UniProtKB/TrEMBL annotation:
UniProt GO MF annotations: Toll-like receptor 2 binding; Toll-like receptor 4 binding
Residue ranges with Low complexity bias: 38-66
Keywords attached to this entry: Receptor
Alphabetical list of Gene3D superfamilies matching this protein: Toll/interleukin-1 receptor homology (TIR) domain
A Pfam family: TIR_2
Name by which UniProt lists this protein: Toll/interleukin-1 receptor domain-containing adapter protein
InterPro entries per record: TIR_dom, Tol-interleuk_rcpt_adapt_Tirap, Toll_tir_struct_dom_sf
Domain TIR: 92-221
GO biological process: positive regulation of canonical NF-kappaB signal transduction; positive regulation of chemokine (C-X-C motif) ligand 2 production; positive regulation of tumor necrosis factor production; toll-like receptor 4 signaling pathway
Gene name per UniProt: TIRAP
Region (Disordered): 33-66
Cellular component annotations (GO), alphabetically ordered: cytoplasm; plasma membrane
Length: 223
């Protein structure tokens, strides 16, 4: 019986060998896909596998969010949107409060005239013009800060010498400790080393060309 089973196994193996040999020959002679097909297949697999793209981004040290932020431009803010009746703009009395020293009043008046003449018709608080006569200085400064969306700090040698300017600056920082773009420092005729240490975590506008700086201030207020 063992011999019969051994002979039967040999017959099955010998009959299977030609089939296996033919399979190997077909495998060896199978044509390779072209480079175009390979790249197409690779592109399909990459686009259909979010996990693979995210893992490759991690391995390369860049995040998908970074590349997205570079390619997507924020929509411009329109004057019609700002002036809409439902805009958050109208939650406060002023769009911007200008903090300055008395010696810089002429330059500040030019800035206020420029901002109020823009299509947005910015509402500016100018202390010598808008403060209520007979009111305490401290009360007026605090009210101006609290009732404005943002604050322009015109930092000049006169600003650094004026204790009321520093007081208003501290009130603005207390109102928005992390700033969120609401405090807008503008340097003029001040060395970088004299920049107030309270504002060191904020970028500033350096006023060299007046017209260019006015545009920068306007764009920052809009944002």
């Amino acid at each position: 019986c063992r011999q019969e089973r051994f002979r039967a196994g040999n017959r099955q193996l010998s009959s299977a060998l030609p089939t296996m040999a033919g399979w190997f020959r077909r495998l060896l002679h199978k044509p390779k896909p072209s480079s175009a097909e390979s790249s197409l297949d690779a592109g399909r697999s990459a686009s259909s596998s979010p996990s693979s793209s995210s893992s490759s981004a991690k391995s390369s040290g860049s995040s998908p969010g970074t590349s997205l932020a570079r390619s997507v431009c924020p929509a411009p803010v329109l004057a019609s949107d700002i002036n809409a009746s439902g805009s958050a703009r109208w939650a406060k009395s002023y769009d911007v409060c200008i903090c300055h020293s008395d010696v810089d009043l002429e330059l500040v008046e030019e800035l206020v005239s420029y901002l109020e003449g823009q299509p947005e018709s910015f509402r500016c608080f100018l202390q010598l013009r808008d403060a209520a006569p007979g009111s305490a200085v401290v009360t007026e400064l605090c009210d101006a800060v609290q009732n404005s969306h943002c604050w322009v700090m015109l930092i000049t040698p006169g600003f650094l010498r004026d204790p009321w300017c520093k007081y208003q600056m501290h009130q603005a920082l207390a109102e928005a400790p992390m700033a969120n773009g609401r405090t807008i420092p503008v340097l003029k005729d001040v060395d970088r080393k004299d920049y107030p240490k309270e504002l060191r975590n904020l970028y500033y506008i350096y006023m060299a060309l007046k017209e260019k700086s006015f545009r920068q201030i306007r764009d920052t207020i809009v944002r």
